[in-house]
Amino acid sequence: MTDRYVLADTDTGVDDALALLTVAHHPGTEIVGVGTVFGNCTERQAARNALTVLSVAGLHDVPVCIGQPRPGPPPATSSRHGLDGLGDRGYRPPPGVYPAPESAVDQLLRVAEDRPGAVDLLCLGPLANIAAAVTRDPRLLTRYRSVTVMGGMGTASRRGVEAAVQPQFLGKGDTNTNHDPGAATVVAAAPGQITWVGMNVTGRLRLAWADLVARSAVGKTATFVRDITEDYHRYCTSTYRAENPIYTAHDSVAAAVMLDPAVVLAADDAQPTVRHEDGRAAVWGVTPVRGPAHRFVTDLDYGSIGARIAATLDAIPRSGAR
Questions:
Q1: pLDDT tens profile 169-204
Q2: d(Cα 208, Cα 114) in Å, to the nearest integer?
Q3: Which residues contact 246 (CB under 8 A, 6 or more apart)?
């Protein structure tokens, strides 16, 4: 029985792929659509990647809609996710499978109108599509059952604490916001049941590369994730200065929060504000609140989230997977 419907908005990189698989394999959950945006790759490549990932999960009828192009020139540095966003391992969608003709923005508006209060919106990339839809319908996000954003840096009052616990915290930054600060500003002012799952919490979950390699010996899902994460895990190991090889799963942490709110051990209501520092933009939650209050997660049950990801890696693709 389906008891949760999800619309995902993604720039389909390596960790986005694992997040989509996490949602796809969650019991009782149906992905009703995917919208793609620039970020880890172009919005069109992100659509091809999403179709590839859904195929790995055995899902072939989910509409994938292309969204907003990047405002301005491409970033000066290459993506850590590879030129194609999936580690340059040659993965492609199945033959004859293409994006839907509807735009990602129109899809956001249509789903909210067709199923008010019934669909959870999971935002895994820059917020360009969400902002464009909110500009057309300022109360759009109130029509979703929940909105979970993988973005932000947490609450400003905890900045020093997080920086001390995670030395790379401030330098790593709020990547999704930095890709499109204007879009983040629009979403930050929108009303709705909106939860920010920021780098303050997603960066704390570091998964053992050796475990993924071991699981890939017996499972197709884990094999795919291992393949696309091969280079990304080296970047993660270096960035987090880990003693043993690791990889991170920022977007899967956000997906876990959406799928099971009980994993949230602590959160603060605050007003999301885009701040520009050191040439980068980031969303911080500030108080007192002088606008719509959003929820900022500050602590999570990482054991439960890790177990969920492990179950995803071990999952058998649904019947019909190619």
A1: 999 999 999 999 999 999 999 999 999 999 999 999
A2: 42
A3: 206, 207, 208, 209, 233, 236, 237, 240
